[in-house]
Specification:
The complex is a heterodimer of chains A (308) and B (382).
Chain A (H helix, E strand, L loop, with lengths): L5 E12 L2 E12 L3 E5 L6 H8 L7 E6 L2 E2 L4 H7 E4 L11 H11 L5 H11 L15 H13 L5 E5 L7 H16 L3 E5 L3 H4 L4 E6 L2 E6 L1 H7 L3 E6 L3 H8 L7 E5 L2 E6 L2 H11 L5 E5 L3 H16 L1
Chain B lengths: L2 H5 L3 H17 L1 H21 L7 E7 L4 H12 L3 E5 L4 H10 L4 E5 L3 H6 L5 E7 L3 H17 L20 E7 L6 H32 L1 H6 L5 H29 L9 H25 L3 H17 L12 H9 L1 H15 L3 H28 L3
Parallel strand pairs in B: 1-2, 1-3, 4-5
Antiparallel strand pairs in B: 3-4
Classes of the chains: A alpha/beta (308), B alpha/beta (382).
């Protein structure tokens, strides 16, 4: 793979705040046209890492390129070609939708500005609301406006920091359809999320905890890499059963999903031994594929043992 | 909990709110410091700095007569505590210049025939020229002069000269109130208001302008675009310079049309110098906005700056009435210098040469505030 095929190609990226390492030697390469999911618990360093990619923060260590520009020295060029959507709505609530888009278009010195603003309004279905103040919009519409604004200068890379937090399922689905269409046209998207269904819609994933990258690859690769075994159990008295399982050697997670319980552990033999102790005919036990959430919680627990 | 207790005023719930407020108050260190700092500052300023009976006013003496009677009179004026004889100009022109520059508050002219006329019982005329731009500063001293006049020479006029005491007053004091002959307070206050209004609005507006962007999260978005920090700063300052000029114009129009304030000097000069003052205040606001964590803190800081700008700048109370330390603090405030410039240009007709000593402190203030502001602003990025 030649470097020009990579939208993001960084190694050893590190950031410290007041002596605390927030992002610890992260290597990441993202291909052009790829939707890359970035997952991890709150405070794991996702936002800090994104801020370093888009030139808002300078890494303390590490090197690499973003869209072929050096992340340490060419931040001005990077900013010109990257669209960054912050976690919190960060457009002007006392400006109308059109005024917000027009302002951003002027800042980026977009050619044919009026057309670009109009086109952006139409594509996102905002043309009927263009005179409405951004502050009066609902969460879903604010998110559409933010997406429209960070696309107005035709960026090559979109950095989306929890774009769908607090957005209803329908709006979320429409948002993802839009992201896939953009990616199909060659736009690279790096997106952070806490939603497992969204993680599954990404081409590739990375999982971050305590500033370190713990897993990466396609969904299948991440699931396989975690080597996690999961059993599903149904039947009466699941609450007591869960209490009996927790803390036994080999049992790492016991999670209730409605009327079933998921029991997971990395060591298959120990897990089975633990299950055999509490097994009785009233319950139905089946071996299932570990879910992404089980895998991530397992990765986080493991990371806590190692680093915290 | 029964329905009855739910609807009754609950001191328990009330206490929960009170407790929470105290916790939040304690967390916001700057606000807490201001709650203590502002009353302390007011106490210091009102209690120690402000004095509506200014004394030791710098006075120039043009003594053409050096005789014993003249010396007695001069000594008496000095002993009144109102006059500090700081200058002895050689010529009348030099004395007039001192008055125009604001270096002295009074010029006392003792005529050459002072002693001779006194002895003849002819009531010699002593001319006191006062810089009356601020009537509050000169008023008490002038009243004191009249009291002195009646009694000052009683000790010297003994023996055969005692008959001179019988006159209505052995000396005829003539007071010339320059620049504001009718002692109209508005002539002093209205031009001064220009500095006060600009200080208040310019500092508060910029202190809020950047803090608001940070508080609402729009700053992060802005910084992720190609826009450069200096573009953000200058772009935020420019509109308010226009606002400042509208305020200057409004006050000048009101001064002219409503209060009839004389405008002797060059208004173009005033407009030009106003730019430095407006910029200095905006830079101060930017510095505050980089220090404040939220808009409330920004407003408090601006208020902390505004208070001395009206109290010890010479706007509300005579500058020379304050103790030395307060005058030093006042000298650090841009408003102090701007007030002198505005009053100088409008009331005295001062030109660039006369106001130059007040311009460089403004430029210095601007340079310092801008440097600190830009430096702090850059630090907030990383």
């Amino acid at each position: 793979m030649s470097p020009t095929d990579l939208a993001i190609d960084v190694t050893g990226v590190t950031k410290k705040f007041a002596g605390k390492t927030v992002v610890d030697a992260i290597d990441l390469s993202v291909r052009r046209g790829e939707i890359y999911g970035f997952l991890g618990p709150n405070g794991s360093g996702k936002t800090t890492f994104i801020r370093m990619l888009c030139g808002l923060l300078t890494p303390d260590a590490g090197q690499g390129t973003c869209l072929g520009y050096d992340v340490l020295t060419q931040q001005a060029e990077i900013k010109r070609h990257v669209g960054y959507m912050t976690q919190r709505f960060s457009y002007y609530e006392d400006l109308s939708i059109r005024e917000n888009l027009d302002f951003i278009a002027r800042i980026y010195d977009v050619p044919d500005r009026a057309d670009a603003v109009q086109h952006s309004l139409e594509r996102l279905g905002l043309q009927n609301r263009s005179a409405q103040l951004a502050g009066q919009l609902s969460g879903g519409w604010k998110q559409r406006l933010a997406l429209a604004a960070c696309l107005i200068h035709n960026p090559q890379l979109l950095l989306l920091d929890e774009p769908t937090a607090g957005v209803d399922p329908k709006a979320r689905r429409e948002f993802w359809d839009e992201i896939h269409q953009l990616a199909a046209r060659g736009l690279t998207v790096l997106i952070t999320t806490h939603y497992m269904d969204e993680a599954e819609r990404c081409h590739r994933l990375a999982y971050l905890a305590y500033g370190k990258l713990l897993a990466r690859g396609t969904l299948a690769e991440v699931l396989a890499g975690a080597k996690l075994n999961t059993w599903s159990v149904t039947g009466p008295g699941l609450l007591e059963l869960a209490a009996g399982l927790r803390g036994r050697p080999g049992v790492e997670q016991v999670v209730a999903f409605g009327n079933t319980l998921h029991v997971s552990g990395r060591d298959a033999a120990k897990l089975e031994a633990a299950i055999n102790v509490v097994r009785n005919p009233r319950h139905e036990w089946t071996r299932v594929r570990s879910g992404l959430e089980d895998v991530f919680i397992s990765l986080m627990d493991e990371a806590k043992d190692n680093f915290a | 909990m029964s329905a009855a207790t739910l609807h009754r005023l609950s001191f328990y719930r009330l206490w929960a709110i009170v407790r929470k407020e105290f916790i939040q108050m304690r967390r916001d260190r700057v606000t807490f410091a201001m709650m203590v700092g502002i009353p302390l500052m007011q106490l210091m300023l009102f209690g120690f700095a402000i004095n509506s009976d200014p004394k030791h006013l710098p006075t120039a003496i043009l003594a053409a007569d050096q005789g014993p009677f003249a010396r007695t009179l001069v000594a008496a004026l000095r002993h009144s505590d109102y006059f500090a004889l700081t200058q002895e100009p050689a010529t009348e022109a030099e004395a007039a210049r001192l008055l125009q520059l604001g270096d002295v508050q009074f010029v006392i002219n003792l005529p050459a025939d002072f002693s001779r006329k006194l002895l003849r019982g002819e009531q010699p005329t002593v001319l006191i020229e006062a810089d009356a731009t601020d009537p509050a500063a000169t008023g008490p001293a002038i009243s004191a002069v009249r009291a002195i006049a009646d009694t000052v020479l009683n000790r010297d006029l003994t023996g055969p000269l005692a008959r001179l005491r019988a006159h209505a007053g052995p000396i005829d004091f003539q007071i010339h109130a320059h620049y504001n002959p009718e002692n109209i307070t508005q002539y002093n206050v209205v031009p001064g208001l220009m500095g006060v209004v600009l200080t208040m609005t310019m500092v508060v507006i910029t202190a809020l302008a950047i803090t608001r962007e940070r508080e609402r999260g729009t700053m992060e978005n802005l910084l992720a675009t190609p826009v450069r920090p200096v573009e953000v700063m200058v772009g935020k300052i420019l509109p308010y310079i226009a606002v400042g000029y509208i305020q200057v114009t409004l006050i000048l129009l009101a001064a002219r049309l409503i209060f009839g304030v004389p405008m002797i000097g060059n208004l173009a000069l005033l407009y030009s110098v106003s730019l430095i003052f407006i910029a200095a205040n905006l830079a101060m606001g930017i510095t505050f906005s980089t220090l404040a964590q939220n808009q409330l803190q920004a407003v408090q800081m601006a208020f902390f700056f505004f208070l001395p700008s009206i109290l010890i700048s010479g706007f509300m109370f005579p500058f020379r009435g304050m103790p030395q330390w307060a005058q030093w603090v006042g000298t650090c405030l841009p408003n102090t210098h701007f007030l002198r410039i505005v009053r100088g240009i409008l009331l005295k007709g001062n030109g660039l040469a006369e106001i130059a000593p007040e311009i460089w402190p403004l430029l210095l203030f601007l340079a310092v505030a801008m440097t600190v502001g830009v430096k702090r602003y850059r630090q907030t990025l990383d």
